[in-house]
Amino acid sequence: MADKGAEPTIRDVMVLLTAVSSRLQCLETKMSVMDSIEKRMENFENDMKRLWVVHEDRAKKVEERVLRLEDKVDGVDIHAAELVERVQVLVKERDTLREDVSYLQSQSMRSNLIFTSVPEAAGSDIETPEVTEAKLRQHLVSAFKLTQEVATSLRFERVHRSPGSPTPGKIRNIIAKFSFFKDREMVRKMWKELDGTEYRVFEQFPPEVVMRRRQLVPKMKEARRLGKRAYLAYDTLYIDGNPVRA
Which parts of 88-227 are beta strand (E)? Predict the structure, then answer.
Protein backbone atom coordinates (compact mmCIF):
# COMPACT_ATOMS: atom_id res chain seq x y z
CA MET A 1 0.00 0.00 0.00
CA ALA A 2 1.17 3.61 -0.68
CA ASP A 3 2.73 5.66 2.05
CA LYS A 4 0.56 7.78 4.28
CA GLY A 5 -0.41 11.06 2.67
CA ALA A 6 0.13 9.67 -0.83
CA GLU A 7 -2.77 9.12 -3.20
CA PRO A 8 -4.02 5.53 -3.18
CA THR A 9 -3.23 3.62 -6.27
CA ILE A 10 -5.53 1.38 -8.21
CA ARG A 11 -3.71 -1.53 -6.65
CA ASP A 12 -4.57 -0.22 -3.20
CA VAL A 13 -8.20 0.22 -4.17
CA MET A 14 -8.31 -3.32 -5.58
CA VAL A 15 -6.86 -4.71 -2.38
CA LEU A 16 -9.47 -2.87 -0.34
CA LEU A 17 -12.26 -3.97 -2.64
CA THR A 18 -11.04 -7.55 -2.42
CA ALA A 19 -11.03 -7.33 1.39
CA VAL A 20 -14.48 -5.76 1.37
CA SER A 21 -15.73 -8.40 -1.05
CA SER A 22 -14.30 -11.15 1.15
CA ARG A 23 -16.00 -9.65 4.20
CA LEU A 24 -19.26 -9.32 2.25
CA GLN A 25 -19.02 -12.96 1.25
CA CYS A 26 -18.48 -13.88 4.91
CA LEU A 27 -21.49 -11.79 5.83
CA GLU A 28 -23.55 -13.37 3.07
CA THR A 29 -22.49 -16.80 4.28
CA LYS A 30 -23.45 -15.89 7.84
CA MET A 31 -26.70 -14.38 6.60
CA SER A 32 -27.54 -17.58 4.73
CA VAL A 33 -26.78 -19.51 7.90
CA MET A 34 -29.02 -17.09 9.81
CA ASP A 35 -31.73 -17.60 7.21
CA SER A 36 -31.40 -21.35 7.64
CA ILE A 37 -31.57 -20.99 11.40
CA GLU A 38 -34.57 -18.69 11.08
CA LYS A 39 -36.33 -21.22 8.85
CA ARG A 40 -35.51 -23.98 11.33
CA MET A 41 -36.86 -21.80 14.14
CA GLU A 42 -40.02 -21.19 12.16
CA ASN A 43 -40.38 -24.91 11.55
CA PHE A 44 -39.73 -25.54 15.23
CA GLU A 45 -42.36 -22.98 16.19
CA ASN A 46 -44.83 -24.57 13.79
CA ASP A 47 -44.04 -28.02 15.22
CA MET A 48 -44.50 -26.66 18.73
CA LYS A 49 -47.83 -25.14 17.74
CA ARG A 50 -48.98 -28.43 16.24
CA LEU A 51 -47.79 -30.28 19.35
CA TRP A 52 -49.57 -27.82 21.56
CA VAL A 53 -52.79 -28.27 19.59
CA VAL A 54 -52.42 -32.04 19.85
CA HIS A 55 -51.66 -31.71 23.57
CA GLU A 56 -54.69 -29.50 24.15
CA ASP A 57 -56.87 -31.91 22.18
CA ARG A 58 -55.59 -34.88 24.16
CA ALA A 59 -55.88 -32.98 27.42
CA LYS A 60 -59.48 -32.14 26.57
CA LYS A 61 -60.22 -35.79 25.73
CA VAL A 62 -58.54 -36.93 28.95
CA GLU A 63 -60.57 -34.41 30.92
CA GLU A 64 -63.76 -35.63 29.27
CA ARG A 65 -62.84 -39.24 30.07
CA VAL A 66 -62.04 -38.30 33.66
CA LEU A 67 -65.43 -36.61 33.97
CA ARG A 68 -67.15 -39.68 32.53
CA LEU A 69 -65.19 -41.92 34.88
CA GLU A 70 -66.10 -39.71 37.83
CA ASP A 71 -69.74 -40.00 36.84
CA LYS A 72 -69.36 -43.78 36.57
CA VAL A 73 -67.53 -43.93 39.91
CA ASP A 74 -70.30 -41.93 41.52
CA GLY A 75 -72.81 -44.30 39.97
CA VAL A 76 -70.78 -47.31 41.16
CA ASP A 77 -70.59 -45.85 44.67
CA ILE A 78 -74.34 -45.41 44.72
CA HIS A 79 -74.85 -48.92 43.36
CA ALA A 80 -72.34 -50.32 45.86
CA ALA A 81 -74.16 -48.58 48.71
CA GLU A 82 -77.42 -50.05 47.46
CA LEU A 83 -75.78 -53.50 47.26
CA VAL A 84 -74.40 -53.17 50.80
CA GLU A 85 -77.84 -52.20 52.04
CA ARG A 86 -79.38 -55.11 50.14
CA VAL A 87 -76.79 -57.52 51.53
CA GLN A 88 -77.53 -56.29 55.05
CA VAL A 89 -81.24 -56.89 54.44
CA LEU A 90 -80.50 -60.38 53.07
CA VAL A 91 -78.27 -61.16 56.07
CA LYS A 92 -81.06 -60.13 58.42
CA GLU A 93 -83.54 -62.22 56.45
CA ARG A 94 -81.14 -65.18 56.56
CA ASP A 95 -80.68 -64.81 60.32
CA THR A 96 -84.44 -64.56 60.75
CA LEU A 97 -84.94 -67.69 58.64
CA ARG A 98 -82.31 -69.50 60.71
CA GLU A 99 -84.07 -68.45 63.88
CA ASP A 100 -87.38 -69.63 62.44
CA VAL A 101 -85.90 -72.97 61.35
CA SER A 102 -84.23 -73.44 64.74
CA TYR A 103 -87.50 -72.63 66.47
CA LEU A 104 -89.43 -75.07 64.30
CA GLN A 105 -86.80 -77.74 64.92
CA SER A 106 -86.99 -77.03 68.63
CA GLN A 107 -90.75 -77.35 68.52
CA SER A 108 -90.43 -80.70 66.78
CA MET A 109 -87.99 -81.74 69.54
CA ARG A 110 -90.09 -80.27 72.34
CA SER A 111 -91.16 -83.68 73.66
CA ASN A 112 -87.70 -85.24 73.29
CA LEU A 113 -85.20 -86.22 75.98
CA ILE A 114 -81.69 -87.59 75.55
CA PHE A 115 -80.49 -90.29 77.96
CA THR A 116 -76.76 -91.06 78.26
CA SER A 117 -74.76 -94.14 79.31
CA VAL A 118 -77.65 -96.61 79.01
CA PRO A 119 -75.91 -99.86 77.95
CA GLU A 120 -76.61 -101.06 74.43
CA ALA A 121 -76.18 -104.38 72.68
CA ALA A 122 -72.52 -105.37 72.57
CA GLY A 123 -70.54 -106.52 69.56
CA SER A 124 -72.11 -106.57 66.12
CA ASP A 125 -75.65 -107.12 67.42
CA ILE A 126 -78.09 -104.51 66.11
CA GLU A 127 -80.34 -103.12 68.84
CA THR A 128 -83.90 -102.80 67.59
CA PRO A 129 -86.11 -99.85 68.63
CA GLU A 130 -88.23 -102.26 70.69
CA VAL A 131 -85.18 -103.43 72.63
CA THR A 132 -84.02 -99.81 73.09
CA GLU A 133 -87.44 -98.82 74.46
CA ALA A 134 -87.45 -101.75 76.88
CA LYS A 135 -83.97 -100.77 78.12
CA LEU A 136 -85.13 -97.18 78.59
CA ARG A 137 -88.15 -98.21 80.69
CA GLN A 138 -85.92 -100.36 82.88
CA HIS A 139 -83.47 -97.43 83.13
CA LEU A 140 -86.27 -95.13 84.31
CA VAL A 141 -87.02 -97.62 87.11
CA SER A 142 -83.44 -98.26 88.19
CA ALA A 143 -81.91 -94.79 87.74
CA PHE A 144 -84.84 -92.37 87.99
CA LYS A 145 -86.57 -94.35 90.78
CA LEU A 146 -89.88 -94.52 88.93
CA THR A 147 -92.22 -97.35 89.87
CA GLN A 148 -92.55 -100.16 87.37
CA GLU A 149 -96.19 -99.22 86.91
CA VAL A 150 -95.38 -95.58 86.04
CA ALA A 151 -92.52 -96.59 83.73
CA THR A 152 -94.81 -99.03 81.93
CA SER A 153 -97.59 -96.46 81.56
CA LEU A 154 -95.40 -93.92 79.76
CA ARG A 155 -96.14 -93.57 76.06
CA PHE A 156 -93.47 -92.89 73.44
CA GLU A 157 -93.84 -91.91 69.81
CA ARG A 158 -90.33 -93.13 69.13
CA VAL A 159 -87.28 -94.41 71.01
CA HIS A 160 -83.97 -94.94 69.22
CA ARG A 161 -80.21 -94.71 69.60
CA SER A 162 -78.17 -91.78 68.25
CA PRO A 163 -77.37 -92.13 64.54
CA GLY A 164 -74.32 -94.15 63.59
CA SER A 165 -73.01 -97.66 64.00
CA PRO A 166 -72.16 -99.14 67.40
CA THR A 167 -68.54 -98.47 68.37
CA PRO A 168 -66.63 -100.70 70.85
CA GLY A 169 -66.07 -98.84 74.12
CA LYS A 170 -68.69 -96.18 73.38
CA ILE A 171 -72.37 -96.10 74.24
CA ARG A 172 -74.71 -94.21 71.96
CA ASN A 173 -77.31 -92.02 73.60
CA ILE A 174 -80.99 -92.89 73.63
CA ILE A 175 -83.34 -90.30 72.13
CA ALA A 176 -86.94 -90.65 73.30
CA LYS A 177 -89.91 -88.72 71.95
CA PHE A 178 -92.68 -88.76 74.54
CA SER A 179 -96.29 -88.85 73.41
CA PHE A 180 -97.27 -86.43 76.18
CA PHE A 181 -95.25 -83.37 77.16
CA LYS A 182 -96.30 -83.68 80.82
CA ASP A 183 -94.68 -87.15 80.94
CA ARG A 184 -91.53 -85.74 79.44
CA GLU A 185 -91.43 -82.96 82.05
CA MET A 186 -92.10 -85.39 84.88
CA VAL A 187 -89.09 -87.48 83.85
CA ARG A 188 -86.86 -84.45 83.15
CA LYS A 189 -87.50 -82.93 86.57
CA MET A 190 -86.23 -86.09 88.22
CA TRP A 191 -82.68 -85.41 86.95
CA LYS A 192 -81.43 -84.96 90.53
CA GLU A 193 -81.92 -88.71 91.04
CA LEU A 194 -78.93 -89.13 88.71
CA ASP A 195 -76.51 -87.19 90.95
CA GLY A 196 -73.51 -89.34 91.77
CA THR A 197 -74.15 -91.68 88.86
CA GLU A 198 -72.74 -91.89 85.33
CA TYR A 199 -76.15 -91.21 83.85
CA ARG A 200 -77.44 -87.89 82.54
CA VAL A 201 -80.63 -86.63 80.89
CA PHE A 202 -80.87 -83.63 78.55
CA GLU A 203 -83.46 -81.77 76.53
CA GLN A 204 -82.87 -82.03 72.80
CA PHE A 205 -82.26 -78.83 70.81
CA PRO A 206 -80.98 -77.94 67.32
CA PRO A 207 -77.16 -77.50 67.05
CA GLU A 208 -77.40 -73.68 66.95
CA VAL A 209 -79.37 -73.61 70.20
CA VAL A 210 -77.02 -76.15 71.83
CA MET A 211 -74.06 -73.90 70.98
CA ARG A 212 -75.72 -70.85 72.55
CA ARG A 213 -76.65 -72.80 75.67
CA ARG A 214 -73.04 -73.99 76.05
CA GLN A 215 -71.85 -70.39 75.85
CA LEU A 216 -74.30 -69.45 78.63
CA VAL A 217 -73.52 -72.33 81.01
CA PRO A 218 -70.39 -70.65 82.55
CA LYS A 219 -72.43 -67.50 83.24
CA MET A 220 -75.19 -69.58 84.81
CA LYS A 221 -72.70 -71.40 87.08
CA GLU A 222 -71.07 -68.12 88.11
CA ALA A 223 -74.46 -66.57 88.89
CA ARG A 224 -75.42 -69.58 91.00
CA ARG A 225 -72.07 -69.40 92.81
CA LEU A 226 -72.96 -65.83 93.76
CA GLY A 227 -76.26 -67.02 95.19
CA LYS A 228 -78.42 -65.76 92.35
CA ARG A 229 -81.32 -67.67 90.82
CA ALA A 230 -80.19 -68.72 87.35
CA TYR A 231 -81.60 -71.15 84.82
CA LEU A 232 -81.61 -71.81 81.08
CA ALA A 233 -84.78 -71.73 79.00
CA TYR A 234 -84.34 -72.58 75.33
CA ASP A 235 -81.43 -70.29 74.22
CA THR A 236 -81.77 -67.69 76.98
CA LEU A 237 -80.25 -67.52 80.45
CA TYR A 238 -82.37 -65.96 83.18
CA ILE A 239 -80.57 -64.50 86.19
CA ASP A 240 -82.93 -63.29 88.91
CA GLY A 241 -85.58 -62.95 86.21
CA ASN A 242 -83.42 -60.92 83.83
CA PRO A 243 -82.80 -62.47 80.37
CA VAL A 244 -79.21 -62.92 79.14
CA ARG A 245 -78.52 -64.18 75.62
CA ALA A 246 -75.31 -65.47 74.07
Answer: 112-115, 156-161, 174-178, 201-203
At residue 210, φ and ψ (nearest 5 deg) are -60, -40
| Chain mean position to CA 87 | 12
pLDDT digits (tens, 9 = 90+) for 138-176: 999 999 999 999 999 999 999 999 987 777 778 999 999
Q: How far is CA 61 from CA 52, 69, 163, 169, in A?
A: 14, 12, 71, 80
pLDDT in the model for residue 183: 96
Strand partners, 114: 175, 202
What was the pLDDT predicted at 3?
56
Residue 167 C-beta-side C-alpha neighbours within 13 Å = 8
Q: Which domains does the chain have, with CATH numbers?
A: 113-204 (3.30.70.1820), 205-246 (no CATH)
How large is the average pLDDT for residues 219-223?
Answer: 92
Has residue 124 got a pLDDT over 60? no
User: How far apart (Å, rounded) are the C-alpha atoms in residues 243 and 46?
Assistant: 86
Residue type, 246: A
Measured distance CA(114)–CA(116) in Å, rounded: 7
Confidence label for 123 from pLDDT (cuts 50, 70 and 90): low
How far is residue 177's CA from residue 200's CA, in Å, rounded to a whole number?
A: 16
